[in-house]
Amino acid sequence: MNSSRCAACKHLRRRCPSDCIFSPYFPSNNPRRFTYVHKIYGASNVGKILQDLPVNCRAQAADTLCYEAYCRIKDPVYGCAGMVSVLHQQLNVAECQLARIKAEIAAIKNETSNVKPHEYQQHVESTALPSLSPYYLPDQSGSTSICYSLPTWFE
């Protein structure tokens, strides 16, 4: 057996030709990478996909196929869409936190602008931070905007 076979040829138990379409993208030192792709897409389909692409796009396509296959194996129902939903939810939470903090800063600035400089320390000690709802936040025009979040079953 030739020890320089790529992971695909080792997995398929065949000789690895010098012009093997898989060898640049599925090295023998990372057999799991091809195993994921083969399990989800099949070697024949992956070979056709790579063959139909220009050479300069094949590496990115192989990486994408590997990531999508890994996500599908990890989460058979949602796959990559599940990861996108989780990241979208995290982004929405961060945007809501940022909006809440900006509103709190604006409220504090508004309160402190009405206080004389020598009364500032007493005012800071006696004033509590405004309590804002995490879902309804005031925007710059004075009206409230709603921060939506994804359902928890997307997690």
TrEMBL record:
The keyword Coiled coil applies. Signal peptide: none annotated. It comes from the Eukaryota. Residues 4-105 form the LOB domain. Keywords: Coiled coil. Residues 84-111 form a coiled coil. It holds the Pfam family LOB. Belongs to the LOB domain-containing protein family. This is LOB domain-containing protein 24. It comes from Perilla frutescens var. hirtella.
